[in-house]
Amino acid sequence: LDVYKSDENMEIRTGRALSSGVFSSGYGTDFWSNPNFQRVSYLLRSSLPDRPSSFPTTSPAPSAPPLYFLGSSMYNSNGNTGMGGIMFDIKALHDVEITQLTWQFNGGYGSSYNYKCYKKTALGPHTDTDMFDSSKWTLIASGSAESLVSGSVTSPFSVQVESGEVQAFYIHGISRSITSQDGGGTSTLDVYKSDENMEIRTGRGLFSGGVFSRGYGTNFWSNPKFQRVSYLRII
Q1: Cα dihedral 202, 207, 210, 213 sign
Q2: Residue 88's closest CA among 198, 168, 190, 172?
Q3: DSSP 99
Q4: Band (56; pLDDT cuts 50, 70, 90)
Q5: Entry pTM
Q6: Helices (DSSP H) in 16-171: which residue ranges?
Q7: CA distance readout (Å), 82 to 110, 180, 185, 193
Q8: Are strands 85-92 and 198-201 parallel, antiparallel or unpaired?
Q9: Is 145 a residue whose pLDDT tops 70?
Q10: In angstroms, rounded to a whole number, what is the distance separating the alpha carbons of residues 33 and 116?
Q11: How confident is the model at residue 57 (pLDDT cuts 50, 70, 90)?
Q12: How far is Cα 80 from Cα 122, in angstroms, rounded to an integer?
């Protein structure tokens, strides 16, 4: 307990010596201090809460990746029609994580209505048969969303799609129908919007009679407010 050296930050105390081997016998009750041994280099760790520690216990958090948006940012009423829901496909051109979808209810602005949003459980585009087979789909978001001219937005979810893969999505208005626009395409391979990370393809509408109800034949639809996709690019 005898102090050999001290300052305002620490005390160096006299120690006890051991023989020539590591953890060998000691020198009895003698207490030794060696100025050359007991010279200590140190940094002062601040006690101020708003000052970063000189001895961080964790690595700095990485910066959040940027959030991307793809789709129309302006409402276009040309050719719009009401329908129960729409299925469409996204092809990833880079590894991406899709986090939200935007669509538009058929009127009722300022009030909230229920919706359901699904992804096709298996990768690949939606087909003529699995459009109406609920066992092929997984619910990823649901609940109530406000009807706005600028578009209604799903609750956040996470669907990762690797580069070159196609993932099908389906959104359906439960307590109010949605609006969609004739995409003018002839196939679900027709691209509605694209950037360097993904392609959004024209989709197919489903009837207002219920989720996974009958479709609207060979018409292909795209809705600027529905098909606005929020996503992260995976590095």
Answers
A1: negative
A2: 168
A3: E
A4: low
A5: 0.69
A6: none
A7: 18, 6, 18, 21
A8: antiparallel
A9: yes
A10: 75
A11: low
A12: 31
56: its two tokens: 């961080």
Task: Please report where in the chains the tokens 């300022």 appear, as a residue.
Answer: 110
User: Amino acid identity of 166?
Assistant: V
Please give the average per-residue pLDDT across 23-41, as a whole number.
Answer: 65
CA distance 224 to 76: 7
Residue 5, helix vs strand vs coil: strand
- Say if residue 218 is exposed, middle or buried (CB neighbours under 10 Å; 0-12, 13-18, 19+): exposed
**Phi and psi, residue 145, nearest 5°:** -135, 145
Q: Are strands 152-153 and 96-103 parallel, antiparallel or unpaired?
A: antiparallel
**Tokens at residue 41, please?**
């280099």
CA-nearest of 182, 192, 166 to 217 is 182
Tens digits of residue pLDDT in 202-222 = 888 888 778 888 776 656 665
DSSP string, 161-198: E-TT-EEEEEEEESSS-EEEEE---SSTTSEEEE-SSE
Paired tokens of 87: 């299925």
